[in-house]
Prior knowledge:
By secondary structure, the protein is of the alpha/beta class. It has helices spanning 18-27, 48-55, 72-75, 77-91, 106-113, 139-142, 145-152, 167-179, 260-269, 318-326; strands at 5-12, 34-40, 61-67, 95-99, 122-124, 128-132, 156-160, 186-189, 236-242, 245-251, 272-281, 284-291, 294-299, 307-312.
Amino acid sequence: MYRNIPTNLITGFLGTGKTTTILHLLSQAPVGQRWAVLVNEFGRIGVDGDLIQAEAVDHAEVFVEEVAGGCLCCVGSAGMQVGLNRLIQSSKPDRILIEPTGLGHPAQLIEQLTGPYYDEVLDLRATIGLVDARMLNDPRYTSHPNFQDQLHLADVLIGNKLDCYTDADRSAFYSLVNAQGSAKKAAAMVAHGNLKQAYLDEPRLERIALFPEAHAFNTDTHHHHHGHEPPAGDWHRIEGAADGFYTASWTLPTDALFDPACVRQIMVFSGVVRMKGFLPSSHGHMRINATQGGWSEEALEQQMNPRIEMIGTDPLDWRTIEQQLRGCVENAC
Length: 333
């Protein structure tokens, strides 16, 4: 029987560093403990779950379950519940971390996790809300009801990517915190997801969503694709849209070598606002992680099935973008 498993949501809009933060938290897990992570992706082809499993530290046992194809709240009670139940049964965890997609509205998820089904199974503690202060002057983000409710429903508010901030960005974060009044248990700015584990044990406060009619409660109006992930090893594209954002995800050939600089140009000129994935290159296997505020490439020690996900705020010509992506294969004809 599983009772009162400490559980936290790690929320944040697109590109705020949720996965990096979870990896840092896993590095602080007490020796011998079993930590479980439930990861959600907006796109149908997941990236973050495999990354967490591959980079999780050795001194703690880490178990990962991924639910792709939309936010946990609109994949539906069944999708979330099946994934979470499987994770609990397989890992028998000492703690659970849940990472909803950046476009997820957390209200219905909180309602599910505190409802009768999980009432004695989970001990839902502080929701950690991440924000990139560089985006606080971008109305595409700040006017979005999911963005606003992610901040409103957070118990601990974290300005991540401090190493990239200007003085104006820091001031914007301070203004955000001041606007929240005394509603937060804690607020801080950090770099590289360097979050104190103690924040996880702050209590969760009961809050009512500012926009209860938003994404989580209008699940029948969304157009995510919920089929099986296509097989790795060839070109497969799956498109989706929800909440004013548009996505395309690809599995890629395992025998192709991509030029990361070429892929970066797609990010710069195509209207894509978020891109992440695993690419084989002549320099080895690479993880790419990009927002309009920055681009990073990281060499991977472990080989991953090649894949990439892109998100835009406007409908994009994914067919043309795929042609450009194919042109990034080294020695492509």
